[in-house]
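Hi,

Apologies if this is the wrong queue. I'm a grad student, and the batch job for Adenylate cyclase from Prevotella fusca JCM 17724 produced an output file that my downstream script rejects. I'm not sure whether the problem is my script or the file. Here is the sequence I used:
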Amino acid sequence: MSGLEIERKFLVHKNMDWKQLASSCSHIQQGYFTAVNTVRVRIRDDKGYLTIKGPPRNGGLSRYEFEKEITVEEAQQLMLLCEPGVIDKHRYLIPFGGHIFEVDEFHGDNDGLVLAEVELCNEDELFEKPDFIGLEVTGNRYFYNSHMRRNPFKLWRDSVPEEYR
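Support response: The file is valid. Your script probably expects a header line. Output copied below for reference.
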C-alpha cells in the first residue's frame, strides 16, 4: 500500500469495556531505523511489513506512506538492524459508524497507554466517535510510535489525565 495516509488519533477511556466491540485482535512488534523519514519494520502475527512514512502534514493529520509486505523471516532479520526500543502492542479492530477504529494497547515501557486511530478518506471527513474515544492527540509527537520507542510512556505518563492511564 502506498499513498497519502489521513488519520486521527485519540486516547481511550480506561474504564470502558471497548474490547468486547473488537472484530479482531493481532499482536504487533515494530522496530525503527535511523532515517530522515520514519522507516519501520513490523511483525504482525504471522506477516512482516516494511513501511516508510514521510513527514507529517496539516498538524499531523496526513502524511505519505509506502508499505510492502515481506516475509516474517525478512522482518526478523531487519529487526536486528533497528535502533533500540521495540514497540510491542496488541491491535484491536472495532467497526463503528462506517469506519474501523484501530485500538492499540501498548506493552513493555509503554504499558498502560491505549490509543485509537481512525483512517479517513479526506481531511474534512466527518465520522461518528464511539463512547470509548476521549481526548484527541492527532499531531502530538509524544503519541507517535517512533517517538515512544525513545521516550516511552512510563517516563511521561503523569502528564496524561488519569482517566486515560
